[in-house]
Sequence to fold (144 residues):
Amino acid sequence: MRLSSMADYAVVTMCAAARHCGFARVSASELAEETGLPLPTVQKLVSTLSKGGLLKSTRGAGGGIQLARPAAAISLADIVEAVEGPIALTACVEDGRHDCALEKNCSVRPHWALVNTTMRGALDGVKLTELARIQTQEVAQELS
Fold:
């Protein structure tokens, strides 16, 4: 399994937002500059992550972007799902999907739900606080 570029960039953007003391407001321009991502990409991610309930965006004077909930309550699974949808290694477990030639005789299909749940659980165990802290430590090491 490989994350899309947008999911990867979403993690980078959320880490940057978390480093701004979580609930402090920051602009999309500041996030773009800090992460090295193009401003239009950050703006698109802010919209997607806001719809996913991970960021809050306020317009106007005194506005900006901030985490919608504490970084410790946001997981890698939450970020990935906000961008990519439900975590699933195969499409055959989705309701209404019948596009696999092996579906009628597949002995593995009943087990994919367990695999997907396990994968989501692993990603859910990685909290934004850990991801932001790791990056902060790496930057501090590079500067010293």
